[in-house]
Amino acid sequence: MYISLRNLSINMKIQGIVLDREKSDKIELREVALPLLGPTEVRVALKAAALNHRDEWCRQGLYPGLADGVILGSDGAGVVEAVGATVDPHWVGKEVIINPALDWGADEGAQQKSFSILGMPRHGTLATHVQVDQNRLHEKPEHLSWEAAAALPLAGLTAYRALMVQGGCVAGEQVLVTGFGGGVAQFAAQFALAAGAIVSTSSSSTEKLAKAREVGVQHTFQYTDEQWVKAALAETEGYHLIIDSAMGDTLAQLIKVARPGGRLVFYGATRGNPSGFDARKVFWSQLKLIGSTMGSDADFSAMLDFVREHRIQPVVDQVFGMEEAVEAFERMKAGAQLGKIVIRTRR
User: Fold this and answer.
1) In this predicted model, what pLDDT tens digit does every residue of 53-100 receive, in sequence order?
2) CA distance 80 to 32
3) In the chain, what are the domains?
4) Which of 72, 141, 148, 162 is 20 to 30 A from 276, comparing alpha carbons?
5) Phi, psi (degrees; rounded to nearest 5) at 240
6) Phi-psi group of 85: left, alpha or beta (phi > 0 → left; psi -120 to 50 → alpha; rest → beta)
7) How do strand 101-102 and strand 116-117 relate by DSSP bridges?
8) How far, CA to CA in Å, does 341 sit from each of 42, 247, 324, 325?
9) E strand or H helix that includes residue 283
10) Rounded to whole angstroms, how far apart are CA atoms 76 and 131?
């Protein structure tokens, strides 16, 4: 049953996976009282949510501005259960997906200082319900299951902006997406294939590279093989566009496999800063090094349109119940996932 909450003064109690750094596992499934529904807010009864590395980094205390008691999670999909006083009641009962990027700002080129992500410091999606502003709602793509829809928002948005907006991917280009196995890299590879690019990917895992070939990736390389750069150049003659989240000392290898005039887009730096940097190669080959993170509201809408048009299917690794949250987080910590780890929030 779905209702329109207008001037109804109740604090709803829900179940959510919260950060609690006093606990041995640092997270706990517990009852949480949601604040009163604001006039422009909606309450979504979540069907499924998904993990991102951000959630595990919060558990490890590696993310800024942490607060115990906050429900983690940025990705989620569900049904609108209630709306605030100024929200169009047509949303009630709609199947929706949630844009987790909050307060991007008016500049499409970069986020403003107040930008944040759902799930810390604001209550997130690893719960039975979530409250967000009405402008975070989008109708769920009809071809996606609840689990697949929940896997899409943060990683899909990040991949789309890095590949299509910052990277300017076009059909026929040679594109390298590093680190296949993580959600963003998998979406970037899928989006590049749908855009008509010739796609390569790299990983240390033969299992993950086999999965990449299953989704249509044409060239795969184990980056632990010292000859991978030579092999990539032999097979592709170099890349017009490279999408990477590691940076670190692998930057030198990426510069070597970039074509003259190529673009290197970085949406993370999990391996830190590079110890050596071949500036001569960059300027002489007229390479472009571009940063990217999350995306604007326009990017999110464009990403959903792209997913609908090409009927993209997110790769789901494993589905856990809320009571299995620690196991799910440990799987992400170990890097064992092949696709997105999903939490089923309703039976």
Assistant:
1) 999 999 999 988 999 999 999 999 999 999 999 999 999 999 999 999
2) 19
3) 10-56+76-81+113-153+313-346 (3.90.180.10), 167-291 (3.40.50.720)
4) 162
5) -75, -35
6) alpha
7) antiparallel
8) 26, 24, 12, 10
9) helix 279-284
10) 11
